[in-house]
Amino acid sequence: MNPTLIWAFLISLALTWPGIYIFRRFVPRWGLVDVPNERSSHTRPVPRAGGVVFVVVVPIVALGWAWANGLRLDRGDWALLAGGWFVALVSLIDDWRGLSARTRLLAQAWAAGAVILFAGYVRGVAVEGLGLLHWGALGIPLTFIWIIGLTNAYNFMDGIDGLAAGQAVIAGAAAAWLANSFGASWLAIFTASLAGGALGFWLHNYPPARVFMGDVGSIWLGFTFAGFAVVYTQPEKPGMPIGVWVILLSPFILDAGLTLARRVLRGEPVWQAHRTHFYQRLVTFGWPHWWVMGLYLALAVVLAALSVVHFGLHRLSFLTLAVFGLTTFAAIVLLVWRIEFSAAQLAARGKGPATRDAHWQFVRRAGIYLLADAVIVAISYYAALLIRFSGGIPPLYYEAWRAGVWAIALVHLTVNAAFGIYSRIWRYASAPDALIVGEATLVSAAVLIGGEVLLEPVRTIPLTLIGLGAFFSMAGFTALRYRWRLFAEINRRWQAQPEGRRINTLIVGAGESGQALSWQLQNRRKGEQFRVVGFVDDDPAKIGMNLHGVRIVGGRDDIPRLVETQAVELIIFAITAISGQEFREMLAICQGTPAQIKIAPDVFEGLEAVAASPLVRDVTVEDLLGRSATEIDLAACRSLIAGRVVMVTGGAGSIGAELCRQIADLRPSLLVAVDVNETGLYDLDLEIDLPRAARRTASPFTPWIADTTDARQMRAVFEAHRPQIIFHAAAYKHVPLMEAFPCAALRVNTRGTFVVAELAREFGVERFVLVSTDKAVNPANVMGATKRLGELLMLAAGEASPTTRFTAVRFGNVLNSRGSVVPRFQRQIDAGGPLTVTHPEIDRYFMSLPEAVRLIVQAATLTQGGDLYMLDMGESIRITDLAERMIRLRGLRPGVDIAVEYTGLRPGEKLHEELISAFETRVSTAHPNIYRIVAGPDAPPRPSFAALRDFVESLGGEESPAELNRLWALIGCDLPPIGSHSPDGRQAAALDAPR
């Protein structure tokens, strides 16, 4: 080994290791701190963006040694250096403040373009036996894809302590040795320095990690490796095959590539946080971190050694190298898949004989499919031989088929297993499942063709035979797996039509939900009573087309005519993505017909419904809000909650109880519900305990009767259970009552929040989430003022606490919660009216209870501490319109059958609620329905944590005008303090409040 390379390695190591140590000491002051998750072995928050140290050190050391040895860099080398520093700088900004995926990709594209402009592009690839395969102009986009793809693949794989840095050490050292043997002196010095710098970082990142690399390091590493593969394939450079980098980085390339392909095929977000890679799934299912890291790094060491033997010593064929790498990684994929299957069976059936029985059932089912697939492959390739040679197979090819059919079958079966074909339930297979079969067969054919090409000139079978045999195999695989669907369709067509009259049905919406509903009505036994006469859809391109044999007959304006001409008795809404305004307009059209109106449940509703739920249901008030389902990153929420002790204050309330229900499904180690409502906690305990007794899968649940304003009682809860995550939903929220009893609002909403927050700080709680309200914006009542004070407390506590992440989530009214207008209207309708509305123009923002709670939990995964979030509430709804539509949903007429009366605004009530103040701006987050609220420069000064503590400690047990005065002063509100509780004075103040 060249001594220059050893010195470059050692100097980078000597500078990076203490540099990272200094970085760890000072960077938390800048806010670059991250918290542990289920994939990391550290247990305390650690600094991130540590890669900035070796990003600076490595190039400087390499340039210094190049200058000392008289090496001169060309413009391609300088372009790669500049591009690497540019993407590193953008990634540092992303680590610090957060940037959109579009911005990051644009920066990477600029840097990749600079490399291509000044260094050139990969014009082809060398294949053993064929020489250089030229790509021509196609090489430019392929080079772009290579650079940006490998850059992000390396970033995606930076998700477990020590893995990315360890891979860089191994790849850098092997590349340095090979570059030296190829005569690429600058590349050898740089990669040796890179290996040393990465090792200096790895010593801090080895489990448990004490510093994170961050995007600044992983993006730079991926870009640099990819750029070297481009720069050193140019004719004027010493030859360094691109295959070197493919082999050295193949664990990352294969894992990231298969993970992204899996996400695309499943319709999952491609750029979401990395939680589904194979190595992370091993950790999630219980493998120790250092085992998983050691497995991948051991694979990287073996591949590095093989690449040195192949490219440097020329003593190993490329085919052997490729087969080893693919086979080894396929074994990891199968291992992950098998572990996940075992875990699923364990969760479903428990331990012991049931688990062994599940294993046996899997082996039996998979074994049958493996045997059948092997027979299909053998028959398919023999049939391909017959067709290729018109029935007269030459003896040479027949013997080749006999000798190699087992290898061909092995390739097909291995690829099928890697694509998860043997883990699917094919009785209910659909088009995406057939697509998986086709993709697996194409990959198998590509592997076989590649093997034949590499065996040139001793080719065993014609390439056309492989293509034809693969096509026949794919047809056989598909027919075998779709036999149930085929038999069921034949059986359905032979059966006679059911007797009796059928209900003429019109489906509104010819999208995914509409076609699924139509298929169920035509094929399921429960749907035999319905006769689908047509679809209605507003997309002009669909009108006149057929869907499952049913014609799309018009748009929404045609509904009255179709109901009359087709004798439609039932209209079913099957639209999952529609705004509330559009839904209400279409509902009004349908209500003008004599047909009955139903709605197809959304898939998320089906997840929460019982198994015997009907195909359609009645239209509800929740449907008036719109039909767009809110999706959350369930993996992120589960990683936050799973295995942790979670406490919910106000657990017996509407929001608190729903929080408990949803959190219980995320598998916390313990769920503690705190409330003073003994009956509510008892009912909640029964509700959560019953499904646990039936399924034995729900998380342990503990109700605790305690007053959040009593520090002694709450300390007992903390000492008994040591909660790690707290959702604080305990509050008084009824505006008129709190106007009459402001001392109660001050005690519960202010003192209670402070008591729980102080204990959270003392006991080192990881995250504290306050449930806030839109009434905290420009508050016009005591309740809103106390909730605004709670928001300010979260912001101040977030700045004062180094460990606990405090955050608040602000949103509007929740349908069917206690005190909501909807249950009151329903009771008034049941009583025959009238419906009482305070003002003709009053409006409110509404959200369903499950959706609000899902987003609260999602917001908890996003917070970095000291954050204020706002949920997207959609459009506001006039309470008068809501009342009239609820009357119509009962088949009654507003103003005729049920009267609507206006009673005047109540004390403290505002005509229009707001979600954001004039001095606040909203910033997008990773979730489209959650925004982070940022105060502008004109915002009133925020009180310090010490000032808030002094205020809370000064509160007395009696109502005091002085306390109310200090409350309004602390929140910086212009509304005059309220000294009396007269309804007239409160109403006037509310009407004069800023809107």
State the gist of this model.
With 995 residues, the protein is an alpha/beta fold. The protein contains 35 helices and 26 strands.
Describe this structure in words.
This protein is an alpha/beta fold and 995 residues long. It is built from 35 helices and 26 strands. The strands form 7 sheets. It has a 9-stranded mixed β-sheet with strand order 14-13-12-15-16-17-22-26-25, with helices on both faces. A 7-stranded mixed β-sheet has the order 7-8-6-5-9-10-11, with helices on both faces. Strand 16, helix 29 (782-800) and strand 17 form a beta-alpha-beta unit. It is globular. The model is unreliable at 348-360, 603-613, 693-698 and 976-995 (pLDDT under 50).
> Can you tell me the residue ranges where pLDDT is under 50 for at least 5 consecutive residues?
348-360, 603-613, 693-698, 976-995
Write out the strand line-up for the largest beta sheet, numbering strands in chain order. 14-13-12-15-16-17-22-26-25
* CA radius of gyration: 33 Å
Q: Helical element count?
A: 35
Hey, roughly how much beta strand do the residues contain?
A: 5-15%
Helix content: 55-70%
Arithmetic mean pLDDT: 77
The biggest sheet, with number of strands, parallel, antiparallel or mixed sense and barrel status, is: 9 strands, mixed
Helix/strand/pairing class, anyone?
alpha/beta
Q: Could you tell me the number of beta strands?
A: 26
Name the shape in a single word: globular
Gap between N and C termini: 75 Å
Keyword list:
alpha/beta; 35 helices; 56% helix; 995 residues; globular; nine-stranded mixed beta sheet
